[in-house]
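Hello,

Following up on my earlier ticket. Below are the two sequence lines again, exactly as submitted.
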Amino acid sequence: DTGVSQNPRHKITKRGQNVTFRCDPISEHNRLYWYRQTLGQGPEFLTYFQNEAQLEKSRLLSDRFSAERPKGSFSTLEIQRTEQGDSAMYLCASSFRGLDGYTFGSGTRLTVV
Amino acid sequence: AQKVTQAQTEISVVEKEDVTLDCVYETRDTTYYLFWYKQPPSGELVFLIRRNSFDEQNEISGRYSWNFQKSTSSFNFTITASQVVDSAVYFCALSGPVGVSGNTGKLIFGQGTTLQVKP
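Thanks for your patience. The regenerated structure is below:
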């Protein structure tokens, strides 16, 4: 287990379609975070899981967004009825009890056309 | 509210020059953590350093050094003798004390500084 894995790396979708991204954290990491990064900006927090429990959601996470982490392992982020404004890099990060640095995945770049 | 400001949007230097990236933060927490990440063109965020609020010692790691000053709420990053491979976007980030008062440890990022090192 060499790091945080995110799939797919790139996704192009038509406006109005649903998309789902997957994040596989480092196996012993119980904390998992999703961030969104638009061009020229720093990553912005979306949501946080501790094990399987979703403990914090940003106001950026509209009703069209949903995230899960069944069994406290991998996590999925789904966007329903995508809009052009959803085009961004979606980053996943994990950590072990927050005691160390956060390890980020390579991200999923979403383009909504 | 927590906030991180990186006032320098872009910096361009010639190889072997020293360069300092500025970071100013705001927080009401007495315990907090500061980070620097590097984002090369490939997009992955690479962890560089984590510093807690009680440790004001400056740190040096090879050509990298960090200057943490609580009095000015700054956590600046200096690259000595810059190299072309240092070209990337650099982010400063802040998090609160994990597990205290419901703090989840989420990172608050600055807008980033794009560093271009020319040969």
